[in-house]
Every structure is written in structure tokens, then in C-alpha cells.
């Protein structure tokens, strides 16, 4: 862990956080901090930000890891947003994980979306260089072994777009990342398409999650005799039966709630074509979803899909959840992966009330 001066890029510029930075008014009224661009050991790394005794009544703080390749413009490698409304804490800490590569320098940049009344006693930034991922997994391909069963051209064609949010309404027969809708055409289609998953079961959330995952796998041609899947914290007997009836081979793994480093994933051979993951509340702290996504992606073959079922506990806000999914997408894209467009129904009626729960299916392609 090494300490980094948070105000070393714009030397002398005054931060929007009163009393921090320099004394020269910044030309950007949104500026909070910006470190120098640094050489980082290739592999996993984390920028840690600590705001000491923050206080604010409104605003949103955006923090980004900026990547600067040689002779090219900087781009976003990771980002997060912090809602400042009512913030009053002894210390506020966030960690931004990213994957560092050779020939690229990295900096941490903080700014507010429009304006804010954020006050703090101090702000610290530190860089943790984790290096290459440690793994006990055996090589997926040995000398003379067959090549991975799926090649990029084998997947059904999916058009790409520069828009992260879909303009169309979410639909279960299109490969969109989307929230659960408990009635209407979506549930009728899934009940008709995937009867083995257990429509009569007591858990509608599990039924929807399994059916949607199957629907998306079929859309991209990954339910078949040569397809090898990994289920993480998912043990739905109907789902497993349906996959096996389709010809898939399936491995299952449960993650220890105390295993913050996901060590259980180290012992798997990285030869899976797809993975289904239950992202329970325990993985939804800042950086948790990103880390889970990274580690599962390591288990996939050269071409593979991750379908992450994200639990939604009522009582928060739809806007905050949308922002969380956007941050996950940006993080995944910074690692070189593709993501399916986010599709949300109009309004916020899909978001559960306090005491209720729902699900969201998030999809990425390695």
C-alpha cells in the first residue's frame, strides 16, 4: 500500500471540499481531487479513498480511475458514485478495483455531478497493488488437448451498441439486463418456455431467476451438448434438470459467507462456457459485485457468458440501484468484457417496497 497525494495533478487548485487542495480557484467548479498518473504493477489493483469526518446535505461525488495509455487520451477504467445527501460520518472509505496493464498509467479523479456542500477535515488516497491473481487451478488446456469447445463465431450473433441503456422496454425474449416483473407477458412466456424449473414452487423469485437465465443462454446458443456451465450459489433442482436435459454439463459451488477473497473459485479449472451467479446482499458492498464478477470471469473459457442474479432488497431507491448496475457495467467494460444493455421499465414501480424483495438479471460476455 502506498500513499498518493490526492491533489498532485492540478497543483495548487482549490477543491470544492472547503479547505482542501490549494488556494488558487479551480477553473472547474466541480473539481474535488486528481492524483498524478502513476505506474502500477500489472494485475489487480485498488485505489482507496478515505474522507475524514465528511458532512454534506446534498450532491453526488463521482470517483473515477483514469487510464492513460502511451500517446493516447485517458479513459475511464472504473468508477463509482456516492450520494452525499445527509452524509455525516467519522470517516467515509471507498475502494475502486481495477485491472492494471503494461504501458498504461493510472490516476484517481474525484468531482461532483453539479454542486455540493461537502465539507471534510482531510482526504487520503492510497494505492494497493495486488498483482497477478493467485490461483490453484490447473491449466484448462494441456499439451495435445483439444481447443475450447466454443469459438467466438459459434455464438449466435448479437449486435453491439454504444448505448449502455436500452431504448426498448425490457422483454424476456431479448438479451437485456433487466429487473423482475411479477406479472404480464414476461411471466407467461417463462412459464410456457421452461416448465421444468418448477412453476408450482413456493419461490417466485427463484423461478423467475432460473427461467430468465435459461432464456438468455438459449438466445446466445449456449444450451447444448458441448456446453459446460458453472452455478455459483444456485442449487435449483429444476434449473439443473433443464440444463442437463438440454445436454449441458454443470458444476456447482457454494461460497462461504466469510470468504471475502472468493478462494473457493481458485480450485476450479477455467474451462466453463457460461456461469450463473447469485449475487446475494453479502456481495453488494462497494466493490463486492465487481470482485465477484472478476473472479467468475476467470473461470470462463475464451468465450463465455456470466449471468448474475442480483438480489434487490426493498427500502432503497430505484435510482440508486440503476446507478449501481451502471457502475458494474463500466467496471466490466474496463476489463475488456462486453455487457448486455440495461433495460428498465418506465417509472419506478418495478422496485420493491420496504419489506419486499425482487431480482435483476445482469449479463456480461467475456
Task: Give a verbal description of the structure.
The chain is of the alpha+beta class. α3 links the parallel β11 (228-232) and β12. α1 (185-193) crosses α2 (204-219). It has helices at 185-193, 204-219, 237-245, 288-297, 318-334, and strands at residues 2-4, 31-34, 38-39, 43-52, 60-69, 75-83, 91-100, 104-112, 122-131, 178-179, 228-232, 249-253, 272-279, 300-313, 338-339, 357-365. The chain has five helices and 16 strands. The two termini are 30 Å apart.
Topology record:
Layout: E1 2-4, E2 31-34, E3 38-39, E4 43-52, E5 60-69, E6 75-83, E7 91-100, E8 104-112, E9 122-131, E10 178-179, H1 185-193, H2 204-219, E11 228-232, H3 237-245, E12 249-253, E13 272-279, H4 288-297, E14 300-313, H5 318-334, E15 338-339, E16 357-365
Helix pairs in contact: 1-2
Report how far apart the termini are: 30 Å
What is the number of beta strands? 16
Oligomer classification: single chain
Reported for the largest beta sheet, the result is: 7 strands, mixed
Helix content: 10-25%
Mean pLDDT: 80
Descriptive key words:
single chain, 366 residues, alpha+beta, 7-stranded mixed beta sheet, 5-stranded antiparallel beta sheet, 16 strands, globular
Amino acid at each position: 500500500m502506498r500513499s498518493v497525494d490526492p491533489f498532485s495533478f492540478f497543483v495548487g487548485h482549490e477543491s470544492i471540499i472547503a479547505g482542501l487542495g490549494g488556494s488558487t480557484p479551480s477553473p472547474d467548479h466541480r473539481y474535488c481531487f486528481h492524483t498524478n498518473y502513476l505506474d502500477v504493477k500489472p494485475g489487480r489493483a485498488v485505489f482507496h479513498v478515505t474522507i475524514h469526518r465528511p458532512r454534506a446535505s446534498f450532491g453526488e461525488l463521482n470517483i473515477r480511475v483514469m487510464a492513460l495509455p502511451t500517446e493516447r487520451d485517458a479513459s475511464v477504467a472504473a468508477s463509482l458514485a456516492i450520494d452525499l445527501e445527509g452524509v455525516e460520518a467519522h470517516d467515509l472509505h471507498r475502494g475502486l478495483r481495477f485491472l492494471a496493464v503494461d504501458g498504461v498509467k493510472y490516476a484517481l479523479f474525484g468531482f461532483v455531478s453539479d454542486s455540493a456542500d461537502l465539507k471534510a477535515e482531510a482526504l487520503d488516497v492510497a494505492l494497493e497493488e495486488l498483482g497477478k491473481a493467485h490461483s490453484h487451478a490447473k491449466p484448462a488446456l494441456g499439451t495435445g488437448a483439444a481447443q475450447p469447445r466454443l469459438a467466438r463465431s459459434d455464438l449466435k450473433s448479437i449486435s453491439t451498441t454504444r448505448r449502455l441503456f436500452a431504448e426498448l422496454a425490457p422483454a424476456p425474449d431479448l438479451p437485456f439486463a433487466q429487473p423482475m416483473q411479477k406479472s404480464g407477458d414476461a411471466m407467461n412466456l417463462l412459464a410456457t418456455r421452461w416448465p421444468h424449473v418448477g412453476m408450482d414452487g413456493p419461490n417466485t423469485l427463484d423461478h423467475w431467476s432460473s427461467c430468465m437465465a435459461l432464456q438468455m443462454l438459449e438466445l446466445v446458443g449456449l444450451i447444448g451438448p458441448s456446453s459446460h456451465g458453472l452455478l455459483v450459489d444456485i442449487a435449483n433442482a429444476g434449473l439443473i434438470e433443464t440444463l442437463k436435459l438440454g445436454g449441458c454439463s454443470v458444476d456447482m459451488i457454494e461460497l462461504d459467507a466469510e470468504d471475502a477473497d472468493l478462494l473457493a473459485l481458485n480450485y476450479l479449472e477455467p474451462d466453463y462456457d457460461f456461469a450463473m451467479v447469485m449475487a446475494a446482499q453479502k456481495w453488494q458492498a462497494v466493490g463486492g459485485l465487481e470482485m465477484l464478477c472478476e473472479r467468475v470471469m476467470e473461470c470462463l473459457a475464451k468465450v463465455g457468458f456470466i449471468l448474475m442474479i442480483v438480489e434487490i432488497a426493498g427500502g432503497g431507491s430505484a435510482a440508486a440501484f440503476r446507478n449501481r448496475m451502471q457502475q458494474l457495467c463500466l467496471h466490466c467494460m474496463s476489463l475488456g468484457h462486453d455487457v448486455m444493455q440495461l433495460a428498465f421499465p418506465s417509472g419506478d414501480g418495478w422496485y420493491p417496497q420496504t419489506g419486499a424483495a425482487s431480482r435483476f438479471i445482469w449479463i456480461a460476455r467475456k
